[in-house]
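ugh ok fine here u go
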Amino acid sequence: MANEQRGRLTVLLALAANLGIALAKTFAAVITGSAAMAAEAGHSYVDTINEVLLLTALRRSERPADSRHPFGHGPERYFWSLLVAVCIFGMGALFAFLQGVGALLGKGAEEASPLVGYIVLAVSAVLEALSWKQAYKETREHARERGQGFLDFLRTTDDPTAKSVLFEDSAALLGIVFAAAGLAAHQLTGSAFGDGIASILIGLMLTLVAFLLGRTNRELLIGRQARPAVLDGMRDMLDGAPEVEMVVDLMTMNVGTDQLLVCARLDFDDSLGAADVERACARLDGELHDKYNEVYEVFLEPVPRDDPGLRERVMARYGRAADHHYRRERG
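structure:
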């Protein structure tokens, strides 16, 4: 719950900052006639829309499980976060490209009152920095809670919300630098060429951000495996159970942020009775939930390790690694 509250605070702060910045940049774009400033205004409007999408993602993903959605609504967060990536490219990046190309072709307005632009960009930088600090703080705390480094957490996180805000704010700060450089180039040279190049750079930057966020959410929507450290820890726990002879197969999938589905096929000691196996399964279920907070549901299936059909399916999924595991366990 603490993570959810931090995430909502981060998004609300970004929403307020982006809306104010967008209005200020629009005013500055009209006054200065700068293409890069117009691109940045469009960028801020897109970011504002994105925060609304992220708030929707947080609210809808928290709905409880029901008969039609027995694993809950966690993937809603991935869907709405994917729309954020689409908006960043489809609205922000393409608008910046259009502004840049127009400036290069001489279709932009003559630059005037660049001082207004510099003031707006300076204020925007302060507001964006505050929003970025909150997003960075949340991301760092979440990484620390998981025992991961900051960059490793960004690469493997199953929470796209904080990552989206952090990437957006980072892009916004860099976009301000590009816009200021475009204003300065136009002021010093009298040519809109530098202004157009700055706008195109903003478009390229937004395209990169959209790609990175889209790739993250694509993997989560498809159904990504747990982190290697978590997966290895679960396998060791199950392998170490006195009733278990061998972990034949272990599959995990994110069904929401901090919600992990665990499915394991276990070869139990043949001397155990049905009641012993049932009690072992119940105990292992509890131990997995106790050790890993992200575990949402656990399914344990007793199977024989030498079943040829099962081995073939496991081999098809994991290849040589699975074959080595089988040979090692059979001695």
